[in-house]
Amino acid sequence: MSAFHALEALPAPLRRLTERIGALAGRNRLRVALVGGAVRDLLFGTPLAPDAELDVLVEGDGPAFAGLLALDLHGTLRKHAAFLTARVDWISPDGTPQHMDVATARTERYLAAGALPLVSPALLEQDLARRDFTINAMAIRLDPPYAGQLLDPFGGQKDLADRRLRVLHDRSFEDDPTRMFRAARFAARYNLTLDAGTFAQLVRALPALRRVSGTRIRHELALVAEERDPAASLVRLGVWGVFAAIHPALTPDATCLRLAGRMLSSAPPAPWQTAADPCLLVAYALLYGCPPDALPEAARRLGLSAPELRGVRKTLTALAGCTAELAAQLASPAPRLSALYALIASLPPEGLCLLAATAGESARNLMACALERGRSMPLSGGDVLALGVPSGIACGQILRCLCTAWIDGLAGDREALVALARRHAAALAAPAGAAQLRGLHPGRLPCTKKDTV
Ligand code: ATP
User: Fold this and answer.
1) Ligand 1 pocket check for 36: Cβ under 6 Å
2) Where are the beta strands (DSSP E) in 31-149?
3) Which residue has the least CA distance to atom 26 on ligand 1?
4) Any ligand 1 atom below 6 A from CB of 55
5) How far apart are the C-alpha atoms of 382 and 262, rounded to whole Å?
6) Is the whole-model pTM more than 0.90?
């Protein structure tokens, strides 16, 4: 598709917006262009959302142009002087909050690999030359009479058509090793193959990852986790040796990565829709199988904090217990789902997802049954208190017993649970009840099949 037609393909609100930007650029005699992901997606034929974020590049003073735009759109302006960029926020006619990044075309110089670059103003074409891949180094002019003209100095449009991902120069990954994560995301998202030279350069630059901080690695992993198919990027990063280069103990199993990625995708299968932190889930998947003595340093390289590391340790230990219980239950002719539920319900969401990702299909089905049953328990602590049981240890024990009966199918409905709760409450109210309670382990409250039916 030509760039002129690409602009035509913009959703109406964005087309009007680009025309407005173009008119303002024309009045101020500035070369202004659309750049970044929007250009790539337009030329790839991916439809843009009507509220998609646009990146605008200005040859001249970007923040000053952003100020004019903010006035024109009745929006607000935030300048980032050190980076020669600004952000404009405004409310669209239909009431949606929108924003746009406006940057000054610039050149960058890296003084050290992995460090932030030094920037100075430059031409639009020079700005494109500092970008990561040919498919991201294209711009569409917005200023009249050139509106719609494509700037594509590195052949990005052809690479998109040939499904090829290519860096612009042979020190690209050394300059910024986080581009390896970007490479995995774009290759996975658009089904691109790394060109041979680009792949060789990536492998050569792997040692440069050692100089990238854990915080930046975590940020990149968070972006991977946000992809529609995170597993496709994670598996690529694993195969390319990126994780092992971050820390040699990070050698995740591809199946585990694929399944963890599935858990992250927009519609994970029930009942695994949990409130797992996507980035933390990726870290858990990477750290699973890591030798205990390497765990602290490997977790630090992934940007995990000390409390998060403690959480990982605790969860990985708990996972070992859960895996053993799962194996025992699978081998049993009459699995007791309540025992399994007691173990997995206390896992953090990330641990639960990881257990599901690493277990075999029958174990996963058993876990799903236990979770669905446990989560559908129709009686609450409040209901038990309403029966006259004093709050505290007695109430907790009765509730656990009821839960066990419910999950194992010993009480079929709410009425059966209420009847059982009443029997326990009466037993505890009897003179011997309190003494009996003192000697009881939570799991040993009288709750047999005979008691419950
Ligand atoms: P996405 O759809 O994932 O948001 P994007 O290309 O819009 O993709 P951004 O991170 O918003 O991603 O970057 C906008 C543009 O800035 C990119 O298209 C690319 O031209 C440039 N860019 C971003 N990060 C880098 C980098 N690390 N090195 C070089 N250029 C970069």
Assistant:
1) yes
2) 31-35, 54-59, 76-80, 85-91, 97-104, 106-109, 118-121, 139-141
3) 132
4) yes
5) 37
6) no
